[in-house]
Amino acid sequence: MVRPGVERAASCPQEVTPRALATIERVRYPVVLFDFDGTVVDSGGIILASMRHATETVLARSYSEQELMANVGGPGLEAQMEAFAPDRVEELVRVYRAHNEALHDELEAFDGIEHALTALKDEGRTLGLVTAKRRGTVDLAFARLPIEHFFDVVVAGDETERHKPDPAPLLLALERVEGDAADAAYVGDSPYDMQAARSAGMYAVGVTWGRIHDRDALRDADVVVDTAEELLAVL
Length: 235
What we know:
Blueprint: E1 14-15, E2 31-34, H1 44-59, H2 65-69, H3 76-82, H4 89-101, H5 113-122, E3 126-130, H6 135-144, E4 153-155, H7 168-177, E5 184-188, H8 191-200, E6 203-207, E7 223-225, H9 228-234
Parallel strand pairs: 1-7, 2-3, 2-5, 3-4, 5-6, 6-7
Helix pairs in contact: 1-4, 3-4, 5-9
């Protein structure tokens, strides 16, 4: 659902380099929504460890890192586990969560993210968090990292029936802040984030620092950035 008169990148996202930053047109978005895992918090390592623990414990089978992480960031943990064993989803999810929640004490925000959030708030932006995580798990992360105050709205994975790449969670966040998709950007690290942003009519910003998905996975983005400084430059 693309707004009339708004041009989208035809086939590949715009690459941002230090040289390009001096001339790139800076478009201001009053509303900026963020994905959480791999975008705000460096959780790829603990997600991988918990995926491996769950599949080896329940299925007695080893998967490659690429196989374990392929669907992360998509339509919820249950759907991710269904890809491994449709008849063992409940057990896989239970074992994953027991392992994963205990690791949240190790969670860290990515370098430069708190500075970027501070700068955006200082400019008067409305900020939001839209994640596939359950709200209880988000709160575990907030207990470790004092960043909750940056966000005017949080939409967790247990608040909508449909999940990314469906735009429903993003549209719910916009509704709660009374925002317009034409004035909003969504920042994420996965193909599901980029597809959801596009479907919602929002500007799709892909980030590469998450290390959960490779750069090619962000081909549906309007722009791809490598650092928090570059992120500020395109917003």
